[in-house]
Amino acid sequence: MSGHSTYVPKSDAGKWLEERLPIISLMHSAAVSMPNPRNLNYWWVFGGIAMFMLIVQIVTGIILAMHYTPHADMAFNSVEHIMRDVNWGWLLRYTHANGASMFFVAVYIHILRGMYYGSYKAPREVLWLLGMLIYLLMMATGFMGYVLPWGQMSFWGATVITNFFEVVPFIGDDIRTLLWGGFAVDNPTLNRFFSLHYLLPFVILGVVVLHIWALHVPGSNNPLGIEPKTKQDTMSFHPYFTMKDLYAIVLFAIILFYFVFFNPNFMGHPDNYIPANSLVTPAHIVPEWYYLPFYAIVRAIPDKALGVAGMFGAILIMFVVPWLDTSKVRSAKFRPAYRIFFWIFVVNGLLLGYLGQVNTTDDFLGIHGVTNLIISRIGTIYYFGFFVVILPVLGLIEKTKPLPNSISEAVLGVEGAAEEAAELAAAEAKA
Amino acid sequence: MADASDLKEPGRRDFLYIATGAFGALGVGVAVWPLIDQMNPDASVKALASIEVDISSVGEGESLTVNWRGKPVFIRHRTAEEIQASVDTPLSELKDPQTDAERAEKPEWLIMVGVCTHLGCIPLGEAGEYNGWFCPCHNSAYDTAGRIRKGPAPTNMEIPEYEFLSDTKIKIG
Amino acid sequence: MNNLKQNITSIVQKTAIALLVVTSVSGSALAAGGSIEGAPEPAHIDWSWAGVFGTFDRAQLQRGYQVYKEVCANCHAMDLVKFRNLSEPGGPEFSEAAVKALAAEYEIEDGPDAEGEMFMRPREPKDAMPAPFDNNNAAAASNGGALPPDLSLIAKARGHFSFKDMFMGRDGLTGGSNYIYNLLMGYEEDVPEYILAHDEHTNKLGKEADPDFTEEHFELGDSSFNNFYEGYKIAMSQPLDDDSVEYTDGTAATLAQQAEDVSSFLIWAAEPKMEIRKSIGIKVLLYLIILAGLMYAVKRRIWENVRH
Q1: ipTM score for this prediction
Q2: Are residues A1 and A109 in the same domain?
Q3: How many domains would you assign to chain B?
Q4: Which CATH number characterizes residue B156's domain?
Q5: A426: domain CATH number?
Q6: Which of A1, A321, A379, B26 is least surrounded by Cβ atoms within 10 Å, i.e. has the fewest?
Q7: C-alpha angle with apex C103: C102 to C108, nearest 5 degrees?
């Protein structure tokens, strides 16, 4: 991608191809010779895991589409046909359904890792923007995918989300009708959602390529948040990081397949096993878990239009994080105050997730007089406060810890690094 | 790391890599099977794989066409002349030699998949040079036992698996 | 190496904390659903199929089918289940001949024939279970306006999972079978004392009367009282009692026995691939755990000379 490649074609055929289309050296530089900071910890494996999950979703999804019927009268039964009659259909569908959840798990951890270690800061802003674009596309894809089984939650989830668009001034009604292709969520809606649900993952794949490209220009950030200076600070991607990532992917697959085989409906909603009925609304409409924090925000804001704006704002504000954070220091390792606010942010996110699926009028955890609504509002304020107040202000006032000189010094100590440098130099001279 | 020197021994190192690679490849191989097998006929399709047909209403010289696995099956109640014509044909004249007894379990009932073995068209009955079946697509002519006699088709028309449940009922498939 | 260990420990710690927060929060949420004082506790049956290695009891599924066929099927359809499923592995596993005979007890419209007429023929294994009513409107009209739901997926549609079940290694499906079991067992002829006491109690405290517990609410009318139905008023009158069916295998047909049998049967109807799912699952997880061990060794071997 940006010329790290040490690839030299050996065969004539390889040379022939290299002169015409240097695709092998491109891939070689992306996945083999790319220098990576030597000190990456296990939080760095979730990018590879997310990539693995995307592939799992695309493969199982293409197969499910071979058996699924996107028609309001037949969609529900065609999903059950997959579950009951198609060879391995149950396995493919459960993998796809739980895979979506696990994809989001991986991506959420990946995003939070970026926030903890300041991976979005210069010169990696475009990398972050592309990542956020992937996340946004995933949300849209996941939502439309959840509509396809055409159960009660599918139908009413689609109704609630599409009704959000009504708040757009002047043309809200028209947008909603346009999305529906009718006067309510119905067969035309299902058809277009199916079409887009099939399309978007390939768009995501394209943006992932850009995301990786944008990663290769500045290289990976690392737990120390300082740039590698010498060869000593980095190691080649293969075999060091390929094998580490593969190991992590296997561990992650254990969790995924625990759910697929032993609790496949754990992350779904029972009501989605009831066929869609446009005349009966379920008692509680709950979105998939990965939207719950945002659902809590929309419910925390009393005004409909502001609520919807808040929900979309909560996602969009993530795009501008690189410009909200004023700190010169990347890693939270050297930002003691930020570290605390960051973990509160994580807990707050989990809390909002919980609040997104309970009755707003009920007492919070049974505490008398404190409703879930009040806590949701506090959570919402912290969510936005973290971005618009804490990030900019903290960067200006926080007293950060001193940064080490180099990655290898931090890893090996000053003497150890000098020793290793001498060894390397000697080995090179010998060669 | 006490036995670090031991671990560095090349033979054991290679063994670990090869074993892991092989074990991983095995898993990938097994995992691919469901992805392919899902394209095979599913349980609802297989449930329709055999049909029962009542042939009591098919008089001599009459035919019945039924749909079996998405293809037409000809059930022909052959006349004595038709049977005779088939039996009298010497095997040496046949492109795909089969006796009449091999074609029909009970001589008066010829049951076969009505698809021309050339390119899959459906032949017309009681037609052609041999008064059997004639495929209009590329002029393949079959005799009264559905055996190929003339034209580009390579083999006789296929005889499906069938059994007589009673004198008037057959099970195909 | 030390650094790595520290990293892993800190990751494990942090993940554990995060998980604890999520589970404790959700756990208390479930508990907060709350029941009224004096209300009977719903039973949790120790289902034979619930564990990681659990399989269905064939005889129980066959009995459950009998209960469904002789009682439930009078009002409830089961569109997604075909007769052929009854002989498939992992289910009641009736013989193919038995299934053919069971199917042939019912007719289905087929056609058109050569004359263009529709005709009735006996059902075959490929056909679905017969529906008691021609359509939903007819079903609702015959049942005082309440539509008896299709039972194909009822066990999954009513099955709320619990974290406790998950940590006990139990199948998430137990939520559904426990619900059905308790519903069938939960009928009372009269509104029980605890409901009326609760009503008085809330009045005495001077709280606003809970609209669910006002007196007129419990004028049952055509409905029945059920301890475990949301709102307690259920349109379905008590469907099962002792000896509602006579089991062919000689099992005593107590109410509890029938309720347990039909609940298991409905779990199978909703999730016919449960047995193969679990048996393959064990192999897949074992494979992945071994592969993870090997990958860990490979990763360590590659990194062993690198301090990081």
Answers
A1: 0.93
A2: no
A3: 2
A4: 2.102.10.10
A5: 1.20.810.10
A6: B26
A7: 150
> CA B111, CA B106: separation in Å to the nearest integer?
10
Interface of C with B (CB under 8 A): 1, 82, 84, 88, 125-126, 287-288, 290-291, 294-295, 297-298, 301, 304
Is B129 part of a structural domain of the chain? yes
> How large is the average pLDDT for residues C1-12?
50
For A141, the domain range is: 41-430
Mean pLDDT of the region A329-357: 96
Question: What is the pLDDT of chain A when averaged over all its residues?
Answer: 94
Distance (Å, whole) CA C268 – CA C91: 7
Residue pairs between chains A and C whose CB atoms are closer than 8 Å: 128
With 60 as the cut, is the pLDDT of residue B59 above it? yes
User: Options 1.10.510.10, 1.10.1420.10, 1.20.210.10, 1.10.760.10; which CATH number does C44-81+128-188+233-300 get?
Assistant: 1.10.760.10
Query: What Å distances lie between residue A313 and A316, A317, A384, A387, C75, CA to CA?
Result: 5, 6, 9, 11, 50
- Give the distance from residue A124's alpha carbon to the nearest chain C alpha carbon, in angstroms: 24
CB A350 to CB C21 under 8 A?
yes
* Residue of A238, A300, A292, A249 whose CA lies nearest to A269: A292
What is the tens place of the pLDDT at every residue in C133-181?
999 999 999 988 889 999 999 999 998 777 777 777 778 899 999 999 9
Query: Are residues B142 and B102 both part of a single domain?
Result: yes
Quick check: is B4 in a domain? no
Residues B23 and B97 in one domain: no
**Alpha-carbon gap, residue B100 to B89, rounded angstroms:** 9
A235 to chain C: which residues are within 8 Å by CB? 306
| pTM summary value | 0.89
| Residue B2, in any domain of the structure | no
Structural domain range at position B17: 10-37
Q: Tell me: do A126 and A66 sit in the same domain.
A: yes
**Upper half-sphere CA count for residue C94 (Cβ side, 13 Å):** 20
Whether residue B31 lies inside any domain: the answer is yes
Strand (E) positions, A131-261?
234-236
Above pLDDT 90, what percent of chain B? Answer: 67
Listed as own residue / partner, the contacts of A135-140 with beta carbons closer than 8 Å and 24 or more positions apart are A135/A107, A135/A111, A135/A315, A135/A318, A136/A315, A137/A200, A137/A203, A137/A204, A137/A207, A138/A103, A138/A104, A138/A107, A138/A204, A139/A290, A139/A291, A139/A315, A140/A196, A140/A200
Determine the pLDDT at residue C230: 85
